[in-house]
Design goal:
29% of the residues lie in helices and 29% in strands. With 287 residues, the chain is of the alpha+beta class. α6 crosses α8 (269-281). The longest helix has 15 residues, at 46-60. The radius of gyration is 19 Å and the shape is globular.
């Protein structure tokens, strides 16, 4: 069955979908996005994703493209039309189409919206979770407002490409002082020597991941202590466990960083327990 996309009010064949060449997302990366997991016929943490979308739009002074309830209807319809039971949906909103000019376009310019959905390879994801992944560290070189989920991701692209070329699956940004920031598309966690889960505070310098937020809820019934406290690369290398979180992967153990093994070089039990418990705690919206 051919894939279907929603583009600015119309459901169209994915292969034929497109936006105007003067869409500001295309020319200026003047837009925001969200990616949300679909599992067993449910959208995971939809409301938290839409709350973050609202924040990103407000921070960039972009209007909602439609009412929130209407957007939920569109998302569910795109998922159903693509018959996705396990996968993800992608949502992007830009400032719209206007003559190319760095300043905002005229008031009343209609935001552009694209929604797509696709299946994911659940077996491949399960293998990564079981085997763990390798990561590298890269110097922080992004703009200061990474707390906004902007489509301006070129530094992240280059970091992920370097990771691939180095035989790794994720790149971890590090400040000049040696403090860990976040992954190119993930939040980073460690389990310290006392068994405490630590992740960098999200008030500034990283994206406040939705999976990161829900994981804090997951930790409660598992009896795990969570601290939002920065840690260094050295602390990460000496940790009992390291793992990354994102909507597309939930929780992947990191078994090596820059070629150095983490712990015994194998996935740890805490990351595994979190992954197994996550879906039971997360918000679930029927498609």
């Amino acid at each position: 069955m051919p894939r279907i996309a929603y583009v600015n009010g119309a459901y169209v064949a994915h292969a034929d979908a497109g936006v105007h060449i003067e869409d500001r997302g295309y020319q200026f990366a003047d837009g925001v996005y969200e990616v949300c997991e679909i599992r067993h016929g449910f959208i995971v943490d939809l409301n938290r994703h839409l709350d973050r979308l609202d924040r990103s739009l407000r921070e960039l002074r972009i209007d909602w493209p439609m009412k929130r309830a209407a957007l939920v209807y569109v998302i569910r319809k795109v998922i159903r039309r693509n018959r996705v039971k396990n996968g993800l949906f992608y949502l992007q909103v830009t400032r719209g189409v206007a003559r190319r000019d760095h300043v905002f376009p005229a008031e009343g310019t209609v935001p552009s919206i694209v929604v797509t959905a696709k299946r994911t390879d659940t077996a491949a994801i399960a293998r990564k979770a079981a085997n763990g992944i390798a990561a590298i560290t890269v110097p922080e070189n992004r703009w200061d407002r990474v707390d906004i989920k902007s489509v301006g991701l070129l530094p992240n692209v280059l970091a992920r490409q370097k990771a691939k070329e180095d035989g790794a699956q994720e790149a971890i940004f590090v400040d000049a002082d040696g403090t860990v920031k976040e992954g190119a598309a993930t939040n980073v966690w460690i389990v310290d020597r006392n068994g405490v889960l630590r992740t960098r505070p999200a008030e500034h310098g990283i994206l406040k991941g939705i999976t990161r937020t829900t994981l804090m809820d997951v930790a409660v019934p598992l009896g795990l202590k969570v601290e939002e406290r920065a840690f260094s690369v050295d602390e990460m290398l000496e940790a009992r466990e390291v793992f990354i979180t994102a909507a597309t992967s939930i929780c992947f153990p990191v078994v090596s960083v820059d070629g150095r093994p983490i712990g015994n070089g194998h996935p740890g039990s805490i990351a595994q327990n979190i992954r197994e418990a996550f879906f039971g705690v997360a918000e679930k919206t029927l498609i």
